[in-house]
Automatic annotation (TrEMBL):
UniProt protein name: Glyceraldehyde-3-phosphate dehydrogenase
EC code: 1.2.1.-
Domain of life per record: Bacteria
Pfam hit, one: Gp_dh_C
Family: Belongs to the glyceraldehyde-3-phosphate dehydrogenase family.
Lineage: Bacteria, Pseudomonadati, Pseudomonadota, Gammaproteobacteria, Cellvibrionales
Originating organism: Zhongshania arctica
CDD domains referenced in this protein's UniProt entry, alphabetically: GAPDH_I_C, GAPDH_I_N
Matching PANTHER family: GLYCERALDEHYDE 3-PHOSPHATE DEHYDROGENASE NAD(P) BINDING DOMAIN-CONTAINING PROTEIN, GLYCERALDEHYDE-3-PHOSPHATE DEHYDROGENASE
Annotated Glyceraldehyde 3-phosphate dehydrogenase NAD(P) binding domain residues: 136-298
Length: 488
């Protein structure tokens, strides 16, 4: 990318108001593209759908921070405006990348924005093929932290309703008369992730809730075998098991015996010969014939993408992974008996040395690293966001500058840009990454390199970032395959 700098405005506030007006003007155009054409627009991988004016402006600011390029609303608004006039098929379109490409090649060649945009999405004009027909039913078995976040994602991404449709959640009855209301209230308000973005109503007569127009049945059952999903109008559904109760193929196969269920995704590391998938890294291994898939763990999802690209570029001889992990609900709030070592001590008051199988599990995702990594974990008194510290012995010598620049380009321009994000701020702390949709965020300011020895720091929202990875696997298993523009 060519480095470009905007001239300093004479009046910062006047410049802000102009850009604010352009961002405001984008919103109905972005909405039209999304709801009419099922076209989702992005700025360097950051989705613009359902964003506020300030959120759109912040997306532009991110590019200015890490790409050394003064991309602004002045460049992207004409691109989005041009896209909105075209008859486009379903796709994900990065308006920011098209805008930059126009400034670098289109404008010097004398093309208008409209002409250039049309050339960039030529293969999409007049295409009516949808990613999935009909909509694929989805069931969430378990409605805890991950279940509720996956529900938020499914509802948020419902679009025109023709891709994935959340039809039901399955839970045990908690015993309270207002059990349904209480469970829905946990979806509506979240102490870490904030309020639900939209409206939710409870329909107790139909034993369901309606979120942004999506009706979701709440099914009470003590075991999978009790449920006939076809009685609820659910067929050929993908079930996401968030309970972690069954971790092997035999246990999870019980779901497949239920009428209406055809595939299962486990949101925990799978045991035995079950495929453990980190989307973007080994998701090419998912076959149409696969019926049970594990989405691995949040930590495996965080470390596998950077380990893959670093091994491809520099070679990884071996190393150690230390995860500084937020406490989880298997720990005690106050000191009390726990069958696990150390976990009986109060989670909000202590750092607790624990263990992680993520370093070993990476071998299932990246076989070339099997047996090369050790790992351990420290649970700390924060409710969300964790940090993976990778101490690696590389095959090739490098420098801080070379390694950071490599990771920056991977985060912005590689096929793993949805998995790896990049930070160059010396001031960020864990709470800044709550809500990150990436599997990890590479902290360039913390990198240490000494010849072939490197220490890397990768933040990850162990709840929401992981849920986004689960959703990507869900889309792939459902056959949702978006065309991506501009094409690399």
């Amino acid at each position: 990318m060519t480095e470009r700098r905007r001239e300093r405005p004479d009046d910062y506030f006047a410049d802000w108001k102009e850009r604010e007006a352009l961002a405001e003007g984008m919103i109905p155009l972005i909405g039209k593209l999304y709801r009419t054409n099922n076209v989702k627009t992005y700025i360097y991988g950051k989705s613009l759908a359902n964003l506020s004016v300030l959120d759109i402006m912040q997306a532009h600011r991110f590019v200015r921070q890490v790409e050394q390029n003064e991309l602004s609303e002045f460049e992207t608004f004409p691109v989005i405006q041009a896209l909105a006039t075209l008859d486009l098929g379903t796709a994900h379109i990065d308006a920011g990348r098209i805008a930059v490409a126009y400034e670098e090649t289109g404008k010097p060649a004398g093309k208008s924005v409209e002409e250039f945009v049309r050339s960039q999405v030529a293969g999409l004009i007049g295409v009516s093929k949808e990613p999935v027909r009909p909509a694929r039913d989805v069931v969430l078995y378990g409605f805890g932290r991950i279940g509720r976040l996956v529900a938020r994602l499914l509802i948020e991404k419902a679009g025109g309703g023709d891709n994935l449709r959340l039809k039901a959640v399955v839970v045990r009855h908690g015993g309270a008369e207002n059990d349904l209301v209480k469970r829905v209230s946990l979806l509506r308000r979240d102490s870490v992730h904030g309020p639900f973005n939209g409206t939710i109503r409870v329909d107790e007569d139909r034993q369901s809730f309606v979120a942004n127009g999506v009706e979701v049945k709440v099914i009470y059952a003590n075991s999978p075998a009790e449920v006939d999903y076809t009685k609820y109008g659910i067929n050929d559904a993908i079930l996401v098991d968030n309970t972690g109760k069954w971790r092997d193929t035999e246990g999870l196969s019980v779901h497949l015996g239920c009428p209406g269920i055809s595939k299962v995704i486990l949101t925990a590391p799978g045991k035995g010969d079950m495929k453990n998938i980190v989307h973007g890294v080994n998701s090419h291994e998912i076959l149409p014939t696969d019926t049970i898939i594990s989405a691995a763990s949040c930590t495996t999802n965080a470390i596998a993408p950077p380990l893959k690209v670093l091994d491809d570029k520099f070679g990884v001889e071996g190393g150690h992974v230390e995860t500084v992990h937020s406490y989880t609900n298997d720990q005690n709030l106050i000191d009390n008996y726990h069958k696990g070592d150390r976990r009986g001590r109060s989670a909000p008051l202590n750092m607790v040395i624990s263990e992680t199988g993520a370093a070993k599990a990476v071998g299932k995702v990246l076989p070339q690293l099997l047996g090369k990594l050790s790992g351990n974990a420290i649970r700390v008194p924060t409710p969300n966001v964790s940090l993976a510290i990778l101490k690696l012995n590389l095959k090739t010598e490098t420098t801080v500058e070379e390694l950071n620049e490599f990771m920056r380009r991977v985060a912005l321009h590689s096929p793993l840009r949805k998995q790896i994000d990049y930070s160059n701020s010396p001031e960020v702390v864990s709470s800044d990454f709550v809500g990150s949709r990436h599997a990890c965020v590479f902290d360039s300011e913390a990198t240490i390199v000494n010849g072939k020895s490197a220490v890397l720091y990768c933040w990850y929202d162990n709840e929401f970032g992981y849920s986004c990875q689960v959703h990507r696997i869900l889309e792939q298993m459902a056959g949702v395959n978006y065309a991506v523009y501009p094409q690399d």
